[in-house]
């Protein structure tokens, strides 16, 4: 191990020997050789490492957080804080202090603060919340009772740590956006002093890209670190966007460490978020993961009645029952059908009846009148017939290639053509976990995108099922 005379704290030399023994000489020289100084503050129980670039710091946090935590605990004891002084401008020697380790926080504090500089007051914040998405207009049922209960608890006590972050997931159209807006609105009502912000992942990414282009990344991160309650919708859109993920990583850590609430939504659970950094996925699981399932027919009926009453409309029970039976994928589809029926009724000067509902539904969301309900059992039977398998094969633990393909296709089509949650699909097909269903659906989608023959087979089977 090459000696480094600038390293001042003698215990850090012991840490270096332990690190080198775990990662090897070449990796050690490449990544730990650039450390310029190690200083320890006994009063703060804080070790500060000076490194020449943010890239070095980011590499440590991405690749060695666990090793550093174990080594520091062994040498310095429990509760040591790891800080980095990172050179941000080699020409002036200016630095920023970043906190690292298990709760890495980008503090964005200059090492040298100009004299007589008072902190700027926070500007008024537009929360970007949709006023119509309240708890009063959100219909509760078995499919969403847990997320609603947790959301209301957060609104009452935003400083609690049990549900931070709250990670809501479920397919498109089950009410995730409505629910997080309702939580945000209730928070503003009960705690008007808090800075609450709702933003889509797409807008966050656009804002970050603009800040990079204008060389204002510090302003961007500083703004988001000033938020008390941060709500980000559709975080799956961060997948593969490494720089955006890094910026969000720093923001997440700062807010979480300072007791600020994060509320995130996704169309899938963290385990199925491909292209997302592991350290972010780990943080997504720190609080509570809650699934919003597709609503049952009874709940869809309640949603219809609520929306019809809210809009001052009148539908017969027969029309409500028909719509709730055949429109089973998305709450947005229910809303679209209501609006389309009203427009059709006005234009053609006709009363809304079941025949009109059938005609409008077939045009608006592509249902072919849905005269027969497709069940999971029916899908499994047709899949077995198509691939020459038995139901016992699909339900078994066999890993034979042809059986695995048939099982995955059955799960994919069940997820697409029934209102069952992935949890219920997995249990019905061999008592498997919902993560297996998500993985199977992803496998089928990926293969269909690259294998024309397989794609044609699934399409043929899907056509058989739908008829």
What does this structure look like?
There is one protein chain. With 467 residues, the protein is of the alpha/beta class. 52% of the residues lie in helices and 12% in strands. The strands form 2 sheets. The protein has a 5-stranded mixed sheet. Strands 7-8-9-6-10 form a 5-stranded parallel sheet, with helices on both faces. The longest helix has 18 residues, at 331-348. The model is unreliable at 1-5, 101-121 and 367-372 (pLDDT under 50).
The class by helix and strand makeup works out as: alpha/beta
User: What is the end-to-end distance?
Assistant: 71 Å
| Strand runs, count | 10
Number of H/I helices = 20
Mean pLDDT: 80
Q: Give the strand content.
A: 5-15%
- Which H/E pattern describes the elements? HHEEHHEEEHEHEHHEHEHEHHHHHHHHHH
- Unreliable stretches (pLDDT < 50, length at least 5) are 1-5, 101-121, 367-372
Proportion of helical residues: 40-55%
**Shape, please?**
globular
Task: Report the biggest beta sheet as strand number plus sense, adding barrel if it closes.
Answer: 5 strands, mixed
Radius of gyration: 27 Å
Strand order of the largest sheet: 1-2-3-4-5
What's a concise summary of this model?
The protein is built from 20 helices and 10 strands. It is α/β, with parallel strands linked by helices and 467 residues long.
Layout of helices and strands:
Elements: H1 10-23, H2 25-31, E1 37-41, E2 46-51, H3 54-63, H4 65-76, E3 81-89, E4 94-100, E5 105-110, H5 145-156, E6 166-169, H6 176-190, E7 196-200, H7 201-213, H8 217-225, E8 229-233, H9 242-257, E9 261-266, H10 278-284, E10 288-291, H11 297-310, H12 317-326, H13 331-348, H14 354-364, H15 376-387, H16 391-395, H17 401-417, H18 422-428, H19 434-450, H20 452-466
Parallel strand pairs: 2-3, 6-9, 6-10, 7-8, 8-9
Antiparallel strand pairs: 1-2, 3-4, 4-5
Helix pairs in contact: 1-2, 1-4, 5-6, 7-8, 8-9, 11-12, 11-13, 12-14, 13-14, 15-17, 17-19, 18-19, 19-20
């Amino acid at each position: 191990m090459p000696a480094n005379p600038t390293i001042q704290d003698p215990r850090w030399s012991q840490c270096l020997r332990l690190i080198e023994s775990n990662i090897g000489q070449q990796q050690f020289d490449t990544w730990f050789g650039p450390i310029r100084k190690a200083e320890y503050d006994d009063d703060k129980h804080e070790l500060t490492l000076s490194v020449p670039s943010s890239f070095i710091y980011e590499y440590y946090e991405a690749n060695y957080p666990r090793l550093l935590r174990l080594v520091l605990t062994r040498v310095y004891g429990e509760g040591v804080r790891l800080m980095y002084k990172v050179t941000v401008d080699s020409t002036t020697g200016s630095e920023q202090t970043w906190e690292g380790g298990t709760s890495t926080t980008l503090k964005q504090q200059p090492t040298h603060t100009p004299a007589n500089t008072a902190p700027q007051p926070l500007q008024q914040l537009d929360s970007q919340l949709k006023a119509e998405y309240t708890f009063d207009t959100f219909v509760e049922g078995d499919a969403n009772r847990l997320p609603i209960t947790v959301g209301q608890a957060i609104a009452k006590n935003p400083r609690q740590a049990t549900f931070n972050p709250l990670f809501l997931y479920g397919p498109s159209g089950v009410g995730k956006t409505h629910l997080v807006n309702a939580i945000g609105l209730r928070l503003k009502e009960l705690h008007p002093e808090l800075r609450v912000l709702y933003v889509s992942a797409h807008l966050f990414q656009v804002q970050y890209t603009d800040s990079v282009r204008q060389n204002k990344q510090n302003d961007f991160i500083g703004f988001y670190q000033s938020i008390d309650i941060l709500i980000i919708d559709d975080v799956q859109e961060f997948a593969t966007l490494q720089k955006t993920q890094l910026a969000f990583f720093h923001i997440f850590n700062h807010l979480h460490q300072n007791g600020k609430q994060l509320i995130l939504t996704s169309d899938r659970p963290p385990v199925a978020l491909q292209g997302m950094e592991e350290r972010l996925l780990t943080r997504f699981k720190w609080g509570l993961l809650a699934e919003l399932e597709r609503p049952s027919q009874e709940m869809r009926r309640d949603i219809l009645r609520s929306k019809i009453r809210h809009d001052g409309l009148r539908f017969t029970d027969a029309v409500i029952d028909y719509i709730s039976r055949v429109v089973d994928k998305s709450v947005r589809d229910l809303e679209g059908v209501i609006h389309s029926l009203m427009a059709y009724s006005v234009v053609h000067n006709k009363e809304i009846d079941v025949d009109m509902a059938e005609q409008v539904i077939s045009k608006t969301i592509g249902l072919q009148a849905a005269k027969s309900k497709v069940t999971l059992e029916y899908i499994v039977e047709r899949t077995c017939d198509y691939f020459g398998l038995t139901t016992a094969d699909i339900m078994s633990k066999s890993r034979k290639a042809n059986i695995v393909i048939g099982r995955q296709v059955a799960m994919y089509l069940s997820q697409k053509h029934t209102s069952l949650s992935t949890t219920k699909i997995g249990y019905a097909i061999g008592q498997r976990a919902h993560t297996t269903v998500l993985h199977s659906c992803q496998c089928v989608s990926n293969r269909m995108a690259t294998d024309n023959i397989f794609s044609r087979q699934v399409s043929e089977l899907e056509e058989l099922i739908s008829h």
